[in-house]
Amino acid sequence: ASDVYKRQIVSSSIAVIEPEGRMCSVRVITGEMFLLNTRLKFVEEVLNSPQFIKINNQTIINTSYIKEFSATDNARIKVILTNGSCYFVSRYYIKNFRRNYHG
């Protein structure tokens, strides 16, 4: 029998998903973190929701938790989530961010 603790995570509570080795770390808006035994590319395909936007090679964010964002130097966008965490939209993903985020 497996001792792995399985837990359902409601996708609307997910704030950020980032790669963690061959897995993904999923941070929910309450601050808890979980590991998903899958790669970021697969998570991207499964989520397939306009609410989740990939903002750089390492990060998918839930746009419903964006508190504010602003342009920075190096043609990037700084995004601050409602839990205070901060992420950067890389140049390559800016068009996608602007097209899909209607905050």
Question: Briefly, what is this?
Answer:
Helices cover 15% and strands 42% of the residues.
Number of strands: 8
- Name the strands of the widest sheet in spatial order: 3-2-1-5-4
The low-confidence runs, each spanning 5 or more residues with pLDDT under 50, are: none
Major sheet size, sense and barrel closure? 5 strands, antiparallel
- Compressed to H and E, one letter per element, the order equals EEEHEEEEEH
Indicate the percent of residues in helices.
Answer: 10-25%
Which structural class is indicated by helix and strand composition?
A: mainly beta
Report the radius of gyration as a whole number of Å: 14 Å
Head-to-tail CA distance between termini: 46 Å
**Total DSSP helices:** 2
Strand-residue proportion: 35-45%
Q: Could you report the average pLDDT, rounded to the nearest whole number?
A: 89
How does the overall form come out from the CA principal axes?
Answer: globular
Characterise the protein shown here:
- There is one protein chain.
- It contains two helices and eight strands.
- The protein is mostly beta strands and 103 residues long.
- Strands 3-2-1-5-4 form a five-stranded antiparallel β-sheet. Strands 6-7-8 form a three-stranded antiparallel β-sheet, with no helix packed on it.
- The N and C termini lie far apart (46 Å).
Identify the notable features of this structure and list them briefly.
103 residues, mainly beta, 5-stranded antiparallel β-sheet, 3-stranded antiparallel β-sheet, 2 helices, 8 strands, 15% helix, 42% strand, globular
